[in-house]
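Example with several molecule types.
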Amino acid sequence: MSTTTTLEQANTTTWDGGNEPMKASYGKLMMWFFLLSDAFTFCAFLTAYGAIRHRHHAYTGAPEDFTFSTAYWPIPEKVFNAFPGLHGVDLPLAFVALMTMILILSSVTMVLAVEAGHRMDKADVQKWLLWTILFGSAFVGCQAWEWGHFITGTEQGMTLPDGSVFHGANLKFNQYGPVLFADLFFFITGFHGTHVFSGIVLLIIMFINTVNGTYQRRGHYEMVEKVGLYWHFVDLVWVFVFTFFYLV
Amino acid sequence: MASTDISLTHDVHHAHDDHDHDHHDQHFIFKYIFSQDHKVIAKQFLITGIIWAFIGGALSTIFRLQLGWPQATYDWLEPILGKWIEGGKLSPEFFLSLVTMHGTIMVFFVLTAGLSGTFSNFLIPLQIGARDMASGFLNMLSYWFFFLSSVIMFLSLFLETGPASAGWTIYPPLSALPQAIPGSGTGMTMWIVSMAFFIVSSLLGSVNYITTVINLRTKGMSMTKLPLTIWAFFLTAVLGVLSFPVLFSCVLLLLFDRSFGTSFYLSEIYVAGEALSNVGGSPILFQHLFWFLGHPEVYIVILPGFGIVSEIIATNARKPIFGYRAMIGSMLGISLLSFIVWAHHMFVSGMNPFLGSVFMFLTLIIAVPSAVKVFNWLATLWRGNIVFTVPMLFSIGFVSLFISGGLTGIILGNSTLDIQFHNTYFVVAHFHLVMASSAFFGLFAGVYHWYPKMFGRMMDDKLGYIHFWLTFIGVYMVFMPMHYVGIAGFPRRYYSWTSFELFSKFADLNMYISLAAVIAWLAQFIFAFNFFYSMFRGRRATQNPWRSTTLEWTTPVNPGHGNWPGAIPTVYRWPYDYSKPGAADDFIPQHIPYSETASSNLPHEKDLA
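Resulting structure tokens for the full complex:
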């Protein structure tokens, strides 16, 4: 009789259906696939950055003799060397390093929020979500200052062919070098900033729901976990944006 | 996206238990309009797709009139086309808009949303044994984003400056500069906005299809017991998730070039006596980004057809599909290759010829999995007890068109031959056969085959046969002669060719093509009539009219919300047990355990754990 009984049972290994083969709920899987998709969006932008930069000449002289010119791609250390409150001091990449630190810190607090969620510790989830929101907002604030400084420009500016002097940068003119340097900077950091901003909005929703006890009643904090995935992704993207715009 | 999830995170199965109790008194609006039931959403996609197909077909008919009878006057079209007729002639700008919108509508709105939107939604839960999609809400949202995108694209047809007219590939600088062509004004902006919403819709749909296939398969439904349709929809969704975001990036950069003065795609342009200030950008960059989507897109269009046709051919040949695993393998191969061949669209764009030969090599490899599929279909048909139902005819037609169009693909994939053939009607003939007509045949086959499951009634057979033969012959009459015109160097997208002495000997052939195109288009009204008439007056369907093995035929004739009134069936066997030696019937459905089919069990099935 043993053959008959086995013939009536369906297979039950990992991929045989009736279960979650990747040990993840559908919501988490959806978030993963969305992030995969979003990663392709950013890859396309960064590839475009690489291709366009490749079309421009690199600066070949000595770093100390560097001046801004549309003839070559600028050295990032010479462009991003300002720090709020320290006018005229040459601090290459100091401010952006601070920004990056803040964003990475926000990822740490996000991990702690998710971990608190696993423990069903409502108070801790609230605390760490709030820290994450704070660090995230601080990052966006820093980016606003960075943009502001980039747009305002330096005193010397760049002399245009008609003799007038142009300070700072916008989408059509750029005192620091080729106009595409500014175009790409605004576009890609802006697109990333929009992602951070959406992340903050999501975190605020998470925070409100946590305070209201929605997740406590539901019995799990998976929503926080899903937003956490998104937040880490945005953080990871910044590492690449940072590398492309500031380091190489 | 995640924020929309909030109200939905309760357990899926509980959700459906709730629905089972209250779906009878759902309000009309929530039952038929803002429905979260995958079957209703599928029908919404299908009907929207059919409407778009008629619009797209009408546009092509108009420009075929111009190409076939270049000397004729079109005053009689003035009531419809208004100012686009100038002194009895189609305006050249309008011709370009027609070509652009025909391509855009057919590729995206009909053969992407209309085809995979319909059948992925309809068949995935029914064939894998699920109550609904993983997230019914996101599924509904997917349709409404598509609807919004459709409305925007439709409205752009009525702009005074016309809809987008830089070709469906919208290459800059033509598409980036409003002063270059009227269609690159508001029409182009609306095109971009519409496509952005379309991409959102596609993404919401695709992540849903993927997660549903991974997580919601019923007990026993392993990946190698899935019907080939599901494999096809699954891979289509994966391609969509990975390629559409790149189109999104691509058009977003274009939007900035157009509206905010950036120079991503623009450099050193002199237009209408004025030098533009843009320097440093690259139009080739656009082409790379565009075709990184564009090439997987043609597989997004054709893969659902592969799946539907495999299923229908096996059912109607009353034979197991030949090479089930090879079919899956070849689809995987095609999906993978689709991402690394995009530059074969750019052989003559000024790209490095060495790079061209790399892409040529990769492109020609696609012939291998494609041939595997074709031979498997033929081997399935071989010595089958073929039942020539309407969907079967369309499936065989699909195989025929795929072969005819695929062979010219091998020619076009060669970068040296492409120097002669690029941008000629040879290319037009090639992709209309292999991708456009084939995908349409897949769509028709699917509609005829699953109509009884959708509406509980059968479509009329006689009208179906007439529709098939007119369409099949019509399609060949249109596209076969086009190859000859193309080999002679006749360029595509040209409004008028009468000033080239070289081409005047093709006047008759062009007229012939146009006549065939008009007939083929008119034949589609037979389908439309059949479709809507049968919905109300068609013969009532039985539960399993095609004697098929897959799970959707175990549901009631008109499945309610939740699909199965009782428990979801468990799956024991693959979906192609047709004409199994020793079996009582010539098909054994997937949910019949081996213990009930002792007479037909193969030796290794006797002790299946």
